[in-house]
Design a protein that fits this description.
The complex is a heterodimer of chains A (412) and B (77). Helix content of chain A is 33%, strand content 18%. Chain A has 13 helices and 14 strands. Chain A is globular. The model of chain A has no long low-confidence stretch (mean pLDDT 97). Chain B is built from four helices and no strands. In chain B, helix 1 (2-16) packs across helix 2 and helix 1 crosses helix 4. Chain B starts with a helix and ends with a helix. The chains are: A alpha/beta (412), B mainly alpha (77). The A-B interface holds A 63, 65-66, 127-128, 130-132, 135 and B 16-17, 37-38, 41-42, 45, 48.
Chain lengths: 412, 77
């Protein structure tokens, strides 16, 4: 028999705050975390804005000496995982360590480390490339470090599916517990790719907003004047646990995860099919997995990137799947405020979705000013809204044509 | 010797995050200073920079104590 899986711990590092309550308060207040990039010279770049993590206190989580050998993306993951474990009250010890796993992905991995060492290679030769470069750079290292630090010895892996990375990680971790291979999993994603090389690459794809003079208005999902996504950084990690395990230890249960679907577009390296058929298949599969009818879903935490293509095709996919109900359910995009955290997006947004269910508040889609006739659903424009959603879906779609959706439910 | 040892010690303390009084001439990198093979490679790079010399991989493999490093540097400066 399939085991029920619940969420018992949350942890985030975001441009809107480095703990869950600050992040959530800012999200509900409709604040933007996007600003001009300060950490390096952006004068020659076409895009000069991002959602940067500010005042990140790595020493709260790591000895400074250790931190020097851990890339920023993995530091974020460690911070989020530490918060989530503390929040859950899960005690990982000798007797249960083999039954606790880690599944934290990253779309890009340690690109800061890669660039620094590439500079060293060019300027000083191969003998000066750090022996820590590889273990700092590889994208699975967040899962590795979190396992080492927490002692979790159960199932351990990492997804790398671009912007679908952490929804895949959470969905896969859910299935690992459901089939009985672990009792608890630390799952989510992290990203720290705000570097000139990545900005230039994404900008040259014409994927990024160039609204450099108005950073807080740049990410505007579903608005007619959207002109691309805004890159951001951070991490989101949650503790998933079998219901029995959570009940046995008297854990506080935030919500239940009841469905997971994924699909491939088989279409184009970066573009989504105009009809959103890949997104549709992932969402449909998640509904089937949860054994729900479309009208059971009250809220969708959209992928909503603020690109011309995504917002249109995601809207189409929602209409295709939900029919008339598409006009009754509420949809919002956290990316309007936090930007696009790439491989961390699904983790942070799943956490926002949990809070949405628990708090009975739908965070808004900010910067929604001019309706787009092709995006004609209820995007919870500009103001948070009180509601009592029972079932919520969270979507993530990535370059390569990866689509993932999870369904969460209020716990009762 | 004393000067070389002081400089080596300060790099070791900084890189490995160990207490200064643990860094004696007899201290072994692996057991006493808890350095793994990657730590040692990085340390040798730092020492090469600090003392402007090159320690070949073969020579590096022979190094086991802090004293080995100090002696090597003294002999090759």
């Amino acid at each position: 028999m399939k085991r029920r899986v619940v969420i018992t711990g949350l942890g985030v590092v975001t441009p809107l705050g480095n703990d869950v309550s600050t992040f959530w308060d800012n999200l509900v207040a409709g604040r933007s975390g996007i600003s001009r990039i300060e950490s390096f010279d952006v004068s020659s770049l076409p895009v000069q804005i991002a959602g940067q993590v500010k005042e990140f206190e790595v020493e709260k989580y790591l000895d400074p000496k250790e931190a020097r050998r851990i890339d920023r993306f993995a530091q974020f993951a460690i911070a989020a995982a530490t918060q989530a474990v503390e929040d859950s009250g899960l005690d990982i010890r000798e007797e249960n360590a083999d039954r606790v796993g880690v599944y934290i992905g990253s779309g890009i991995g340690g690109i800061h480390t890669l660039l620094e060492n590439h500079n060293v290679l060019r300027e000083r030769g191969p003998r000066r490339v750090s022996p820590f470069m590889i273990p700092m750079m590889i994208a699975n290292m967040a899962s590795g470090h979190v396992s080492i630090l927490t002692g979790a010895r159960g199932p351990n892996s990492a997804s790398v599916s671009a912007c679908a990375t952490s929804t895949n990680a959470i969905g896969d971790a859910f299935k690992i517990i459901e089939r009985g291979a672990a009792d608890a999993m630390l799952a989510g994603g992290s990203e720290a790719a705000i570097v000139d090389l990545a900005i230039a690459g994404f900008a040259n794809m014409k994927a990024l907003s160039t609204r450099n003079d108005e950073p807080t208005r740049a990410s505007r999902p579903f608005d007619k004047d959207r002109d691309g996504f805004v890159m951001s950084e951070g991490a989101g990690v949650m503790v998933l646990e079998s219901l029995d395990h959570a009940l046995a230890r008297g854990a506080r249960i935030y919500a239940e995860i009841i469905g997971y679907g994924m699909s491939g577009d088989a279409y184009h390296i970066t573009a989504t099919p105009p009809d959103g058929s890949g997104a549709y298949r992932a969402m449909r599969q998640a509904l089937e997995d949860a054994n729900l009818r479309p009208e059971d879903v009250d809220y969708i935490n959209a992928h909503g990137t603020s690109t011309e293509l995504n917002d249109k095709s995601e809207t189409l996919a929602i209409k295709e799947l939900f029919g008339e109900h598409a006009y009754r359910l509420a949809i919002s995009s956290n990316k309007s405020m936090i930007g696009h955290m790439l491989g961390a997006a699904g983790g942070v947004e799943a956490i926002a979705t949990v809070k949405t269910l628990v708090e009975g508040t739908l965070p808004p889609t900010i910067n929604y000013e001019t309706p787009d006739p092709e995006c004609d659903l209820d995007y919870v424009p500009n103001q948070a809204r009180k509601a009592q959603p029972q079932v919520a879906m969270s979507n993530s779609f990535g370059f390569g044509g990866h689509n993932a959706a999870i369904i969460l439910k209020r716990y009762s | 010797m004393a000067d070389t040892f002081t400089r080596v010690k300060s790099i070791i303390v900084d890189r490995l995050g160990v207490d200064e009084d643990k860094v004696t001439l007899d201290a072994t990198f692996k057991d006493d200073l808890q350095a793994d093979s990657l730590d040692v490679v990085e340390l040798i790079m730092e020492l090469e920079d600090e003392f402007d010399l090159e320690i070949s991989d073969e020579e590096a493999e022979k190094i086991s104590t802090v004293g080995d490093v100090v002696t090597y540097i003294e002999q090759h400066q």
